[in-house]
Amino acid sequence: MEDKIKRKQFILCFAVFLANGMLALSIGSLLPFLRDAHGLDYAFCGLIVSLHSVGNLFSSFFSGALPMLIGRKKSILLFEVFFPLSFLIMLLGGNRFLLAFAFFATGVARGASSNYCNTKINSIATGMAWALNCLHACFAIGAFVFPLILMMITRTQSANWSYACMLLVVLGVLTCIMYYMIPEDQDDPKDAGKSKEKRDGNTFGFFREPIFYIVTATLFFYLCAEQGVIGWMITYFKDTGLLPPNLAQSTASILWVMILCGRLTTAFLSTRVKKENLLPAMGVGIVLFFIVLIMSKSTTPIVIGIMGFGFSMAGIYATTVSFAGELIKKYSLAWSFILTTASLGSIIMPSIVGFIADDFGIATGVGSIAIALFIDMIFIMILVRKVKKGISVK
Q: Rounded distance, CA 78 to CA 322, Å?
């Protein structure tokens, strides 16, 4: 019976994460259309992309703590309803305040989903990189499918982007239904939290664990780069004229196809190669291929840069999280604090890119992401070195 419940949890978590890939990553694809429709400047676009990350940060923490008060099911449903609400707001008006709230709301739903699904899968397969990489592969499928759908809808008329929003509203409602169907574990999260506190003696004991800080820093700079690239890539290629509009829009799908391939490859290799040997290769890869991407002026090397960057970045998040698997399982609030702190990176970087783009041009703005990638590579090396030296949860 327990195995049957776990199988259903696995399947439904993967299904909702696929849907969330379409919902959460749609903002980068929709941004150029919203910008044209409402005459938005670069600085405001950077602000609303950052507000998505503010919402992500907000719910990353509270969606981890709220289940201890009202239970897991009510908590995830409360946050997930922000997805259909946000796209409905985008459909109904171009008021800047409402647009800002809509982007914030997509982040609220995304953060809660990430917290719930990562925690659920980690509880079933603790510290197993393949399980988390498969989960994030589902997210990648959704992320590359939506730009293709949007491109088909807007091929003859750009104003048709509103129909894509309608699709996202419906999809948001379906995810709420699927979350409702996920069976919960037998233990009450409120009681589980109390028993953990008694067993560990300190709910906040993870602050004494070195791996908490190293993993958080690694994820912080990774999310800086991820949200910066995903939020601005299409706009960068369209506004610089380096790629035709349709090909610029399809770069998001190319990126996410390669992320999917990378996550599946990482999931496969994680069962055969030590994850501390895989992670450094990914860290070096994202730096090298991003440099190729931003330095290239013709289509072929640009596409090679996008493909290599997507493949290299694919397994970094899930593999890094797997290093903290025991920490997350031992301390009930550890994942909330890791995700909340790391999410600050995805808030800061899009705005930095936007402000730099306003003053020095979009190419310089996007190029600034290279700094975050280089720092992330350094923290990856520190994490791997510490793990090889025997760092562990006390």
A: 27
Q: Which of 240, 236, 124, 120 is nearest to 182 (CA)?
A: 120
Tokens found for residue 150: 């949007």
Is the pTM higher than 0.85? The answer reads: no
Residue-level pLDDT at 315: 86
Q: What's the pLDDT tens digit per position in 34-91?
A: 888 888 888 888 888 888 878 887 887 777 677 777 877 888 899 999 999 999 998 8
Least confident of 80-94, 168-182, 261-275, 297-311: 261-275
Give the pLDDT band of residue 292 (cuts 50, 70, 90): very high
Q: Is residue 204 within 8 Å of 105, Cβ to Cβ?
A: no
Could you tell me if 99 and 38 are in contact, meaning their C-beta atoms sit under 8 angstroms apart?
yes
Q: What is the spatial distance between Cα 157 and Cα 267, in angstroms, rounded to a whole number?
A: 40
Residue 39 CA to its chain's centroid (Å):
27
Q: Answer yes or no: is pLDDT of 199 > 50.
A: no
Give the pLDDT score at 2: 62
For residues 249-277, b (16+ Cβ closer than 10 Å) or e, as one string? bbbbbbbbbbbbbbbbbbbebbeeeebbe
- Report whether 22 contacts 168 (CB < 8 A): yes
Q: Has domain 2-387 been given CATH number 2.60.40.3500?
A: no
- Is the separation of the CB atoms in 377 and 312 below 8 Å? no
